[in-house]
Amino acid sequence: MNLSDVAIRRPVFTAMLSFVLIVLGLLSLGRLGTELYPPVNFPFLTVLTVYPGAGPEDIERDVTKPLEDAVSSISGLDNVRSFTRSDSMFMVLKFGMGTDVETATNAVRDKIGGVKGKLPRGR
To answer: How far apart are alpha carbons 2 and 8 in whole angstroms?
Structure first.
C-alpha cells in the first residue's frame, strides 16, 4: 500500500495529517530566528580636501594625484574613486569585505600624513 492509496481510502486521515503539518509549520515559522537587517559594515572610507581659490586642474595635479598615489599601496584596497571640483576634492576608497575598517582608517591616515607636507597650504 503506497501513499496515494492511503490518501484515497482515508481522506479524513489525510486532511488531519495535512492540518497538523501546516500548524507545526506555522508554529516553527514564528520561532524561527531570522534577522531582517544583519549587522554589516561596508568597508568604505572617504577623504575630503578643500583648497580654496584653486581650479579643478590645480587640485587634480597638486592634491588628488599625490593622495591617490599614496593610498593606492594600502593592502585590501579594491577601488579608488576621486571627484575633483573647484575648491575641493572628494575621494572614495573601497576595501574588500573582510577588511577591518579601523585598521584601514589608520593605514589611510598614516599614508595621508606622510604626504601632507607635500600638499599646498592654500591661496
So the answer is: 10
Same domain, 75 and 101: yes
Residue 28 reports pLDDT greater than 90: no
- pTM for the full model? 0.64
| Same domain membership, residue 70 and residue 13 | no
Section 40-57 average pLDDT: 87
In sequence order, the β-bridge partners of residue 44 are 94
Q: Answer whether 54's CB lies under 8 Å from 62's CB.
A: yes
> What is residue 21's predicted lDDT score, i.e. its pLDDT?
95
User: Are residue 57 and residue 81 in the same domain, yes or no?
Assistant: yes
Q: Grid coordinates standing for 35?
A: 534577522
Are both 87 and 111 inside the same structural domain? Answer: yes
Helix (H, G, I), strand (E, B) or coil at 57: helix
Phi, psi of 54 (to 5 degrees): -100, 150
Residue 110 has what pLDDT?
92
Q: Are residues 78 and 112 in the same domain?
A: yes
